[in-house]
């Protein structure tokens, strides 16, 4: 176990009507909740065996359930503000705690694997920043060896410009960076693989 590395996971509690709201407009809140629970379970599967420390940051309230056992995952509450402010605060906490390599992911990417997360941490041995672009114009993973606040500021969060804006700042700051494979987040009906959903029941 490498205790110099920390994986941050940003999640929401699986509550009806409060998750995957854009997706729910097409499939209904019940199906959206089912999809989100499967995504949470997938995120647990690809992270639980990583040889790094792991911290789950809950959006509204800390949920002490079997999905995120405290023996494997630290439990924290996301701070107030927009997504950038919340992520910046989590990175600040991590570096203040003494971690030297920190990577953040969400729980929206069915294509994410343990190997890709390991690639991200490995990339931080030779690069200052690592980022995984999403097909919708955002990113599914961001990692760094020290805090670069500019990467979290002045972004149109939840828009198709987030990755481009972040990459612009990375290049403007002359940070060495590694791009991971482009993957798809599950935010809209066309992102959903219903065969996967049925097969995981």
What would you say this structure looks like, in words?
This is Glycosyltransferase. Keywords: Transferase. The protein is an alpha/beta fold. The protein has one domain (2-195): Spore Coat Polysaccharide Biosynthesis Protein SpsA, Chain A. 33% of the residues lie in helices and 20% in strands. The protein has six helices and seven strands, in the order E-H-H-E-E-H-E-H-E-E-H-E-H. It has helices spanning 21-27, 29-47, 83-96, 114-123, 162-172, 194-199, and strands at residues 2-11, 52-58, 74-77, 101-105, 129-133, 139-144, 177-179. A seven-stranded mixed β-sheet has the order 3-2-1-4-6-5-7, sandwiched between helices. A hairpin with a 5-residue loop joins strand 5 (129-133) and strand 6 (139-144). Helix 1 crosses helix 2. The longest helix is centred in the first third of the chain and has 19 residues, at 29-47. The chain is globular, with a radius of gyration of 16 Å. The model is unreliable at 196-201 (pLDDT under 50).
